[in-house]
TrEMBL record:
Protein keywords: Cytoplasm, GTP-binding, Nucleotide-binding, Protein biosynthesis
Superkingdom per UniProt: Bacteria
Binding site for GTP: 18-25, 86-90, 140-143
Lineage: Bacteria, Pseudomonadati, Bacteroidota, Bacteroidia, Bacteroidales
Name used for this protein in its record: Peptide chain release factor 3
Organism: Parabacteroides distasonis
PROSITE patterns: G_TR_1, G_TR_2
Length: 526
């Protein structure tokens, strides 16, 4: 316990994740409405990058710019301080989302009742599983027709590989949607389609009571009783600890657009979702309640104004209290630094703050001092572990297109990689630099930013690669042998780790067969 424990205990820092269009922006907005952080619907802009804009980089950036303002949305609700971390909707920025997940204590996944589990959700859930992040599922758009809820739950269990436990249950759907039975609070929430205000709740402990028929029609009442009986029979009793361990995901149903089921979600969320949790650093486990400040950079957002090459480094505070103008150690540099204008993000405003506590996110104006994963402390030599890099999906050689600007190009590449825009591999055979990304957009981002921020010109040359594999072996000789045999395909990543660049799945499979002593990893930490 520390003098700050009370502050820390009341914090809930989480991200809402979904496949684009499932309703993340709408849900975020309704949560902000409850928190009084905004007053009208429509105030939160989606940071979704419209598909039509993919060829127009400036337009994309304009849209993406919105996401700086809404990167973190904080508000107070019922004695709790809620920090929602926004994640980019476009899949080409999936790495951004992965990193944001390193800074949250829990996650709400939004699933569209009609579409079920979609590709992006699956990928993001993998990261949550890896980190054992507690997850709540919100099944959205119940005002529309969709899948049978039981089938959807099976699909979630199978596709997301997590056990589920419904804590609310829908009464019909689409045109006939009548509301949900809140199993967690034993209340009947009746649905009135309305975009602005909360609907009526009726305490209803015993759904076998014939009173149910005074609220909903007899066929719906019979179906609800049957469903609830089945749920109680099939799913285990809800146990908060299994949720906190990341083993079970409670499920809520509702309609974000109609503000239905959202308050129930929020009320349950503040009760069961974790306050800041201990974090494993390389040296030791850091408890949020320690007096001394520690934190790490999980995201760097560049200022798109070409005249100012400044960034905002986003810090997740892991323990203690951060104070404006205090001296903190930048562990990688081994030097003390002072920050005179740290910003916090209240609702949609960014403002300078004097203090912040474990669980909070602050933004530090930066001119190139930080890279993703950097640790700040009150003086201790400590290193938080970041999220491992995943193998990119696309690869291109990057070449200098202006021989006079080689230095600028190298500096630009290095800084953009520190920001986490993409991954750099240097081929050990020919010395050429290869950039790996998850989507085409990132190549455009890099080219544009190199030109506008570093006055460097690059050109891309094709290279056909399938995956980057980080390799290791207990057998030194076997490792050397492999590296010699595959010399043309060996590269070093930015941290100097050995990476094998496989040009096809077949070649990779053969390599795995032919070199049983070598372990091939698709993420950079293992
Ligand atoms: P995203 O951030 O996950 O990408 O999704 P977003 O909230 O932008 O929602 C995607 C679309 O789904 C929006 O419609 C939104 O109005 C709609 N939507 C969200 N929740 C519900 C719901 O509970 N029921 C129904 N029927 N629709 C819902 P759009 O037409 O794409 O955008 P807009 O013009 O309404 O903003």
């Amino acid at each position: 316990m520390s003098q700050y424990s009370e502050e820390i205990e009341r914090r809930r820092t989480f991200a809402i994740i979904s496949h684009p269009d499932a309703g993340k922006t709408t849900l975020t907005e309704k949560l902000l409405l409850f928190g009084g952080a905004i007053h009208v619907a429509g105030a939160v802009k989606s940071n979704k990058i419209k598909k039509t804009a993919t060829s127009d980089w400036m337009e994309i950036e304009k849209q993406r710019g919105i996401s700086v303002a809404t990167s973190v949305m904080a508000f107070d609700y019922s004695d709790h301080k809620i920090n929602i971390l926004d994640t980019p909707g476009h899949q080409d920025f999936a790495e951004d989302t992965f990193r944001t997940l390193t800074a949250v204590d829990s996650v709400i996944i939004v699933i569209d009742i009609a579409k079920g589990v979609e590709a992006q959700t699956r990928k993001l859930m993998e990261v949550c599983r890896m980190r054992k992040t507690p997850v709540i599922v919100f099944v959205n758009k119940m005002d529309r027709d969709g899948k049978d809820p039981f089938d959807l739950l099976d699909e979630i269990e199978e596709e997301l590989q997590i056990k589920v436990r419904p804590l609310s249950w829908p009464i019909d759907m689409g045109q006939r949607f009548r509301g949900v039975y809140n199993i967690f609070e034993q209340k009947l929430n009746l649905y009135t389609p309305s975009k602005q205000y909360v609907t009526e709740n009726v305490e209803f402990k015993d759904i076998t009571s014939p009173d149910l028929e005074t609220y909903i029609d007899p066929t719906q009442a019979a179906k609800l009783r049957e469903d609830i009986e089945l749920i109680e029979g099939v799913y285990p009793e809800f146990d908060v600890n299994t949720y906190l361990d990341g083993d079970i995901a409670p499920v809520f149903f509702g309609s974000a657009l109609n503000n239905f089921g959202v308050k129930e979600l929020l009320d349950c969320f503040i009760r069961i979702a974790p306050s800041p949790r201990p974090i494993q650093a390389v040296e030791r486990v850091v408890d949020p309640n320690e007096d001394n400040f520690t934190g790490f950079i999980f995201k760097i957002h560049a200022n798109m104004d070409p005249n100012h090459r400044s960034c905002i480094a986003f810090v997740k505070i892991c323990s203690g209290r951060f104070e404006r103008n205090a001296n903190y150690k930048h562990v990688r540099f081994g030097k003390m630094m002072r920050f005179s204008s740290p910003t916090a993000f209240m609702a949609q405003k960014k403002e300078v703050v004097d203090e912040a506590f474990a669980g909070d996110i602050i933004g530090l104006p930066d001119t190139g001092n930080f890279k993703i994963g950097d640790t700040l402390t009150s003086g201790e030599e400590l290193h938080f572990k970041g999220l491992p890099s995943f193998s990119p999906e696309m690869f291109k050689y990057i070449e200098n297109a202006d021989p006079m600007k080689a230095k600028q190009l190298n500096k630009g590449i290095e800084q953009l990689m520190d920001e986490g825009v993409a991954q750099l591999f240097t081929n050990q055979f020919n010395g050429r630099k290869i950039i790996g990304t998850v989507g085409q957009l990132q190549f455009e981002v890099i080219q544009y930013r190199l030109l506008h921020e570093y006055a460097a010109q690059c050109k891309w040359e094709p290279i056909s690669l399938y995956k980057a594999c980080w390799i290791e072996s207990d057998n030194k000789q076997a490792l050397e042998n492999f590296k010699k045999r595959k010399a043309q395909y060996m590269a070093l990543d930015k941290e100097g780790r050995d990476v094998y660049l496989a040009d096809s799945s077949y070649v990779l499979m053969m390599a795995q067969q032919d070199f049983p002593d070598i372990k091939f990893h698709f993420t950079s930490e293992f």
